[in-house]
């Protein structure tokens, strides 16, 4: 089947999609968007987190056919032409990126949180990233990056 | 393998009747794990995500009606007042990403003994609305679960909604697992005090082949509360009543040893959860909840 969807604001069509395929495979293998990472394929690790109609979801658990007509945002859509998003910049400043594998998923999870609550407390941040595993950082610097992003004035 | 995507409830029922081999899918959080990792290849997917209105809930005076595609995130946000045990159970499901996708209808359709909605639906004496082209049926939650991943749902039926009596007194849900997020419950327990009917309801998860009620514990507590006139007088409940209640809850369980726990630990944990749930509920009741 063909699946037509909006990815990072652009209309895209993936052709020859198989019914048992998931959205992560569609994004990575058919549209060449490898920012969302493939690891556990069971919704445990959060490294494939993307935004689907605004909500943070594990792309590996979305049947590809359900993405028909959906608005998908991936990590590739965060930065501008030559400028990181505020949250991405805060990740660098805080040292929240080590191997980087979990980073795209964390940015998408935190993006949903910061859209809902521009100034979340540490507890709220930790609960919101409970579905994103990081094996390098111990999470402290990721939480610091989120707090840093939250304290920035709008648009900064 | 076909991807069937009805645009209306009527079309969904027609497709369900024409394709009894198709697997209904809403959030996909359970089905996709089996498709990704276990090579599960259903003959067809009956994708309900394009049917309008299924994610909504409504107020029906003494009841609420919850649409089958209501997500855990939405239940946490919207149902804390009228269905506190279900809202609390929803809050502990998986992770934010799973709660954004997983639905109450999916939890019921899958009918896993570890599903987090079930104890709350048993304790509150919820009713499940199912429909097929043959007509509609109302199934009490207490009769819905038949075995591991088996329910009263016929091959041509879809879950249309869940009717839950509005809370009239405190309710609790608690579960035990290896961490606070991303766990399948080792054991779970829900307790609902029904103040208007002066009776209690229980539900146990992950401790038997299906979600079960603790009937002997309910009858014991109902009798104690009535004999001591506890509902009217709102007196503190003696510790011995909490302990006896917890013992009787444990007798309703029939747990197994598996990868997540031993049967013995499950029994122990369930007793602790039941004791605490009663203490929390009764303490809140004494504080004048409602």
From TrEMBL, chain A:
<dbReference type="GO" id="GO:0016491">
    <property type="term" value="F:oxidoreductase activity"/>
</dbReference>
<dbReference type="GO" id="GO:0051537">
    <property type="term" value="F:2 iron, 2 sulfur cluster binding"/>
</dbReference>
<dbReference type="GO" id="GO:0046872">
    <property type="term" value="F:metal ion binding"/>
</dbReference>
<keyword id="KW-0408">Iron</keyword>
<dbReference type="InterPro" id="IPR036010">
    <property type="entry name" value="2Fe-2S_ferredoxin-like_sf"/>
</dbReference>
<dbReference type="InterPro" id="IPR012675">
    <property type="entry name" value="Beta-grasp_dom_sf"/>
</dbReference>
<dbReference type="InterPro" id="IPR006058">
    <property type="entry name" value="2Fe2S_fd_BS"/>
</dbReference>
<dbReference type="InterPro" id="IPR002888">
    <property type="entry name" value="2Fe-2S-bd"/>
</dbReference>
<protein>
    <submittedName>
        <fullName>Carbon-monoxide dehydrogenase small subunit</fullName>
    </submittedName>
</protein>
<keyword id="KW-0479">Metal-binding</keyword>
<feature type="domain" description="2Fe-2S ferredoxin-type">
    <location>
        <begin position="1"/>
        <end position="78"/>
    </location>
</feature>
<keyword id="KW-0001">2Fe-2S</keyword>
<dbReference type="InterPro" id="IPR001041">
    <property type="entry name" value="2Fe-2S_ferredoxin-type"/>
</dbReference>
<dbReference type="InterPro" id="IPR051452">
    <property type="entry name" value="Diverse_Oxidoreductases"/>
</dbReference>
<dbReference type="Pfam" id="PF00111">
    <property type="entry name" value="Fer2"/>
</dbReference>
<dbReference type="Pfam" id="PF01799">
    <property type="entry name" value="Fer2_2"/>
</dbReference>
<keyword id="KW-0560">Oxidoreductase</keyword>
<dbReference type="InterPro" id="IPR036884">
    <property type="entry name" value="2Fe-2S-bd_dom_sf"/>
</dbReference>
<keyword id="KW-0411">Iron-sulfur</keyword>
UniProtKB/TrEMBL annotation, chain B:
<dbReference type="InterPro" id="IPR051312">
    <property type="entry name" value="Diverse_Substr_Oxidored"/>
</dbReference>
<dbReference type="InterPro" id="IPR005107">
    <property type="entry name" value="CO_DH_flav_C"/>
</dbReference>
<dbReference type="InterPro" id="IPR036318">
    <property type="entry name" value="FAD-bd_PCMH-like_sf"/>
</dbReference>
<feature type="domain" description="FAD-binding PCMH-type">
    <location>
        <begin position="1"/>
        <end position="169"/>
    </location>
</feature>
<keyword id="KW-0285">Flavoprotein</keyword>
<dbReference type="InterPro" id="IPR016166">
    <property type="entry name" value="FAD-bd_PCMH"/>
</dbReference>
<dbReference type="InterPro" id="IPR016167">
    <property type="entry name" value="FAD-bd_PCMH_sub1"/>
</dbReference>
<keyword id="KW-0274">FAD</keyword>
<dbReference type="GO" id="GO:0071949">
    <property type="term" value="F:FAD binding"/>
</dbReference>
<dbReference type="Pfam" id="PF03450">
    <property type="entry name" value="CO_deh_flav_C"/>
</dbReference>
<keyword id="KW-0560">Oxidoreductase</keyword>
<dbReference type="InterPro" id="IPR002346">
    <property type="entry name" value="Mopterin_DH_FAD-bd"/>
</dbReference>
<dbReference type="GO" id="GO:0016491">
    <property type="term" value="F:oxidoreductase activity"/>
</dbReference>
<dbReference type="InterPro" id="IPR036683">
    <property type="entry name" value="CO_DH_flav_C_dom_sf"/>
</dbReference>
<dbReference type="Pfam" id="PF00941">
    <property type="entry name" value="FAD_binding_5"/>
</dbReference>
<protein>
    <submittedName>
        <fullName>Carbon-monoxide dehydrogenase medium subunit</fullName>
    </submittedName>
</protein>
<dbReference type="InterPro" id="IPR016169">
    <property type="entry name" value="FAD-bd_PCMH_sub2"/>
</dbReference>
